[in-house]
Amino acid sequence: MVWSGKNPMRIKVARMARVVVLVAFILVLRGAEGRKKGKVAESFEYTAISCRGHSASITDFGGVGDGKTSNTKAFKDAVDNLSKYASKGGAQLYVPAGKWLTGSFSLTSHFTLFLHKDAVLLASQDMKEWPVLKPLPSYGRGRDAAGGRFTSLIYGTNLTDVIVTGANGTIDGQGSFWWQNFHKGKLKYTRPYLLEFMYSDNIQISNVTFLNSPSWNVHPVYSSNILIQGITIIAPVKSPNTDGINPGMNTRDPNNVFNYIVSGDDCIAVKSGWDEYGISFGMPTKHLVIRRLTCISPYSAAIALGSEMSGGIQDIRAEDITAIHTESGVRIKTTRGRGGFVKDVYVKRMSLHTMKWVFWMTGNYKQHADNHYDPNALPVIQGINYRDIVADNVSMAARLEGIEGDPFTQICISNVTIGMAAKAKKVPWTCTDVEGITSGVSPRPCDLLPDQGPEKIKACDFPAEPLSIDRVMLKRCTSRVKHM
Q1: Which residues are catalytic?
Q2: Number of domains the chain contains
Q3: Range of the domain at 354
Q4: Which CATH number fits the domain that encloses residue 449?
Q5: Are 142 and 92 in contact (CB under 8 A)?
Q6: Using CA atoms, how far apart are residues 460 and 330, in angstroms rounded to an integer?
Q7: Element of type H or E holding 365
Q8: Backbone phi and psi for residue 208, each to the nearest 5 degrees, phi listed first
């Protein structure tokens, strides 16, 4: 017998061992796959005006976060199902990490929509998933077209106690599709916004990123008690009409804004209706607070009032504003036929870098809803106060143009230092049909705004009486949810 070094029995045992190991490995893999298909529990905390008694995940309603499957029905089913908890502690819909393609869907009262930090709501590019609404009654027509308007991606009307928040998840409007169709004149209706609440109150929008909106980003209208904080809004600076936040008719309590905005239009655009429609509707925007805003918008303003201001704008308070590469710091826009008013505007502590104008007011912004406006409906611009402002690399300090026979009055500007650019205009101030005073302003203002001396440096101060938004107390909410 010759020994070959290979024992047949050992070979057989080794083969059996390999088979056993292979079977065990397959079982382990199957077990891992089983765990992947099971539910995962996640805990999270956030601050809010209200905490909720019930939680669910969008995956509980068939949601698929692959960026390709439409989740419009899943979101609608989720909101409809969770609405039954409105009187039982409210409900919260959790959107986990993933890309959740969806068309327009509406929210319900006593409801929270929470986005995981890696959750992205992707706006559908199928127009069939965007219902069409009638024009806003204070506008009489759409902004892009004379007819109706596409419903916003996230929408709500006649609601109370609604929160849209998260861990800085993203709402992506995929706006290039809409911008291209708008430029080509292919849209029958006004482009949708990303988020709109109408006739609603006690609304919180916080800790979410809005990206590439088809048009305006956040639009609370005919609503009150709106809190907006910690949001980021980004769109290409040449994208059409991608205003950041467009508050209109917040009639009782103000917004409180701590936000970063890069947009193709005004970062904050305060409005209240257009020509005869806004005059007839008659709902002013009042008691608005804007705080700690950072804005980049080379072709528009950090804060704009108008031009649709026919219902009136009053008691607007803005402080601690930073604007970089922005056309103007504060812009007031109106014209003959607007009617309405802009009164009691208070702005302080602005830091401005590379501007075309620091201050711009114009009574010659001639866009009209239609030809039925009354040319004798003159706007009232009164009580505009700016103080404690520093700017550098500015082309022109101010362009202030009132309306002949209807001057802008009670303008007050104090403690302002404007550093002019190397190629600045030779005349830093132009003023027509305006009245007011200045104190401690450099370069020297126009003669229509005479310097009152350093003793008047505080003449343009804020009102001493705080607004109710300063007394809002947020709760710390803790939640745990299981999802696929």
Answers
A1: 265
A2: 1
A3: 266-471
A4: 2.160.20.10
A5: no
A6: 15
A7: none
A8: -140, 145
